[in-house]
Design goal:
This protein is an alpha+beta fold. It is built from 6 helices and 13 strands.
């Protein structure tokens, strides 16, 4: 864990990159659906694979029911989606209209689970100084400190200096070519310009499968709780 206090500055939220939030109709999705979702979405919009600014968020289902325990992370177990569940695509502004036109009404097969995407609404990137990625690619035998040090070095290339960071346990994400190891990562007390830049560029490879995509988060305690829900 890194933890260093600093001051924040304000910056204008760019409109060159935004999130499209699509309504979802369907009953359930696999817990581990990153590969299936990426394959389905990029078959409809192949430009996602050609432009690294795109990001395919995995679909998050909150565990708020009393006594509900999230199933083990694999492709066989299922999550029940609700009317509030959304599919989110991070997209360059100039491609937003075309992406919405292609994907609205699309029927997707996610590992045998059928869902349909509805209308989309735009959401700008967040200025919040605490952001979180559910999956950042890691090496199979990489320790927590080695992971954080490597991340710190990568962020320096974007002029972002880690002040507060916490990562989660390894999660193996399915692909036909073998699992991809990953960790969740929370970064806190970022400058406004830093949090916006990181949401724009992401961290590491695999944005088309949800890796390295950052979203706003409430903080350390919420990360701990959310991580338990993910397992």
């Amino acid at each position: 864990m890194f933890w260093e206090e600093d001051e924040k500055i304000n910056a204008k939220v760019p409109d060159s990159i935004l999130d499209l939030l699509f309504e979802i109709r369907g009953r359930e999705i696999p817990v581990d659906h990153a590969y299936a979702l990426s394959t389905a979405i990029t078959s409809i919009a192949p430009e996602i694979l050609e432009d690294g600014r795109f990001g395919v968020h995995t679909i998050h289902v909150a565990g708020s029911q009393n006594g509900w325990e999230r199933p083990d992370f694999n492709t066989e177990n299922r999550l029940i989606i609700s009317r509030r569940t959304k599919f989110t695509l991070r997209v360059p502004r100039e491609h937003a209209s075309a992406a919405e036109e292609k994907l609205s009404g699309a029927q997707l097969d996610l590992g045998g689970c059928q869902i349909t995407l509805g209308k989309a609404k735009e959401r700008p990137l967040s200025k919040q100084g605490t952001i979180f990625s559910r999956y950042v690619q890691s090496d199979p035998d990489e320790s927590e400190m080695n992971f954080l040090q490597r991340i710190a070095n990568e962020l320096k290339q974007h002029d972002i200096r880690i002040k507060k960071a916490m990562c989660g346990k390894n999660v193996s994400v399915y692909t036909p070519d073998g699992p991809i190891e990953s960790r969740s990562l929370m970064l806190a007390d970022l400058l406004t310009e830093e949090t916006l830049k990181l949401q724009e560029v992401g961290l590491g490879p695999g944005r088309h499968m949800g890796f390295g995509i950052f979203i706003p988060h409430k903080g350390i305690e919420a990360v701990n709780k959310g991580e338990e829900e993910e397992k």
